[in-house]
Write a structure and sequence with these properties.
Elements: E1 3-9, H1 15-22, E2 28-29, H2 36-46, H3 59-73, E3 81-85, H4 93-99, E4 105-109, H5 112-125, H6 142-150, H7 157-168, E5 175-179, H8 180-185, H9 187-198, E6 210-212, H10 215-220, E7 229-231, H11 244-248, E8 267-268
Parallel strand pairs: 1-3, 1-4, 2-3, 4-5, 5-8
Antiparallel strand pairs: 6-7
Helix pairs in contact: 2-3
């Protein structure tokens, strides 16, 4: 019987690195963000009252159909444990808890200033390849790009709001926050916490040789290197490329670093 878990959280916060590490365990299947969350939302919308035939659907049928989506998507998987990755899962925790009561959500988090710095670094590295992140628009400045991704519907703002909803919501006992800094500095500590959290026997990971590459996808998105993970797990200290006022705008948003702002029952590693 297949066990399903989820990877979510903030962009540029280690989810691809985490998936690359999990994939080392032959019992696990994990990868970059996939389409399942979008399919889930589309299917749910089609079963709503906007569809005149929704009169034929009750919640029991809706649940069965939604479970069938997961079963069909992973029908060819032979892994006993599957981790599906998408930043949208934090916003869907009430539904996930009802569909899969034993499923856990691992949310990768990072100081928002460094998340935006990482996005801007990718943009400036690929100056001749406009990115899908900004709808392939080659214009703008570091300020307009930061405002874009930090907006409520943006690449960072949306997942951040979803993360807060999950952290303070009724299902937070199903949630584990993995800090990017801990993952890159103490990967063994993070993996041990994850195995305990999901109830799986510990596996000895190779933190010196990690590899995950989806070059074709990243190049098509106009952002080469977006999901590439190679080499050893290590922290790489650097100076920010954001102007000081812009960097300082987000420094107080990492609520998980302040014990007084972490709700009871929420695990953070």
């Amino acid at each position: 019987m297949t066990t399903l878990h989820f990877i979510s959280g903030l962009p540029r916060s280690g989810s691809t690195l985490l998936a690359a590490l999990l994939r080392q365990n032959p019992r696990f299947q994990a990868g970059m963000s996939g389409p399942l969350a979008g399919l889930f939302d589309a299917l749910l919308a089609q079963m709503s009252a906007r569809n005149e035939f929704s009169v034929f659907l009750d919640d029991i049928k809706r649940e069965r159909i939604l479970r069938g989506l997961f079963d069909s998507y992973y029908a060819d998987s032979i892994a006993p444990v599957i981790f599906d990755t998408n930043r949208g899962w934090c916003a869907r925790m009430p539904a996930l808890a009802q569909l899969f009561p034993d499923a856990k959500v691992i949310a990768c988090v990072r100081d928002l200033s460094w998340v935006i710095d990482s996005i801007e670094r990718l943009v400036q590295r690929n100056v001749f390849s406009p990115s899908s992140i900004f709808n392939y628009n080659p214009g703008g400045t570091v300020y307009t790009r930061a405002n874009d991704v930090a907006a409520q519907e943006g690449m960072v703002g949306g997942p951040y709001d979803a993360l807060k909803q999950a952290c303070y919501g009724a299902q937070r006992d199903h949630l584990l926050l993995v800090q990017y800094e801990t993952l890159t500095v103490e990967p063994a500590k993070v993996m041990s916490a994850i195995y305990e959290f999901i109830g799986e026997p510990v596996f000895e990971h190779d933190f010196g040789h990690v590899d995950y590459d989806v070059t074709e996808f990243d190049e098509r998105a106009g952002t080469p290197g977006l999901h590439t993970v190679r080499g050893s797990v290590k922290a790489e200290p650097r100076e920010t490329i954001l102007p000081p006022d812009l960097f300082g705008r987000f420094v107080n948003d990492a609520f998980w670093c302040d014990p007084s702002r972490v709700p009871d029952g929420l695990r953070v590693v």
